[in-house]
Amino acid sequence: MFRSILAKILLTLLFLFWQGQSALAQILLGSEAREAILMDADTHTILFEKNADALMPPASMSKLMTIVMVMDRLADGSLKMEDTFPVSEAAWRMQGSKMFVELGAQIPVADLLRGIIVQSGNDACVVVAEGIGGDEQTFARMMTERARQIGLTHSVFRNSSGWPDPEHVMTARDLAILSDYIITRHKQYYSMFAEIDFTWHGIKQGNRNPLLYSFPGADGLKTGHTEEAGYGLVGSAVRDGRRLIVVVTGMESDRKRGIEAARLLTLGFGEFDNYTLVKAGQKVEDADVWLGSVKKVPLVAAREVKLTLPRAARKELKAKLVYQAPLPAPLEKGAEAGVINFTAPGMAPVSVPVVTGDEVEKLSFLSKIPAAFNYLMWGPGG
């Protein structure tokens, strides 16, 4: 009896504790996902990660790499949407989720892409693999090679669909990087990921991405499920012009993967924001010049600094300009003169170079003597 009452008290206290936490604290407390990552697509800041570099079976989420193989060729002109690929018996017999391709048919690339993106068709993946690589094994090697080129450091592909294979592995981080690549490099075709349904061979199938139906601003990307992989989801959403990418894997059900992805996105949008601290070419100070044709030269930021920060940490952000004054003439425009150091709680320090905004000539010999005397006697304002 006592233990039962104590357990109820502890559960109540835990509930009150959880309710009282900020959204940021809830992120820090973890995720139900086996692997997870939440990334700001604009600054590539990782807002949350859990086992993000662990190798895991990606299931159909690895179809994103198959999609990239097609979109890259559309972008370079070696493939067109109206081009067709033939359906082999191997593709026609492929099991699992299907587009329901017809044996011997010639299917346009545009339809095959939707068959993969919307319907998650394993058969459509094999058609594409054979059309580009000649056979699926060769295509899988091409996928791995291309993955390395775009920054996926751990992914290895053994087929085009994510069909279970112990050597077919990815990481949550690689999936986030791959999604960002699609969104930024293939904007022309990215809208297909937001399509709710697609009909082929008289069969209408809905998009399996739960975020498209329930999370405002969601517009992609891909789900995956096998018995070993569990339920996974790579999602992306835009709110007030800001895009986040989320990956959750190893969930117990379709419902839970949608809820967890939505939870992380909600916390990411609510607790973090992007702040432009300084723009490229923005003047930060007028620096004193030693023996130059002018007394001061503007110092400007060499590049833009845009950071993703917890909203609460923005108030504690500090900036410190560091340079050796006075700057000795002559000075070329764009010469590096110092740095601005930005610091905030929980953030790694960020430094941006500052450069001279104008060219400054050196004084003639006769002009140096009175200028130097004046500076030494009265300082830079003399």
Walk me through what this model shows.
Strand 8 (230-239) and strand 9 (242-251) form a beta hairpin. Helix 3 packs antiparallel against helix 5, helix 5 (109-117) crosses helix 6 and helix 6 crosses helix 7 (136-149). A six-stranded mixed sheet has the order 14-16-17-12-11-15, with no helix packed on it. Strands 2-1-9-8-7 form a five-stranded antiparallel sheet, with helices on both faces. It has a two-stranded antiparallel ribbon with strand order 3-4. It has helices at residues 2-20, 23-28, 63-76, 89-92, 109-117, 122-133, 136-149, 172-185, 187-190, 211-214, 254-271, 311-314, 365-378; strands at 35-40, 46-50, 84-86, 106-108, 197-200, 203-206, 218-226, 230-239, 242-251, 272-278, 283-290, 296-301, 305-310, 318-323, 327-328, 336-344, 347-356. It has 382 residues and is an alpha+beta fold. It folds into two domains: 25-274, Beta-lactamase, CATH 3.40.710.10; 279-378, Peptidoglycan synthesis regulatory factor (PBP3), Domain 2 (Sandwich). It is built from 13 helices and 17 strands.
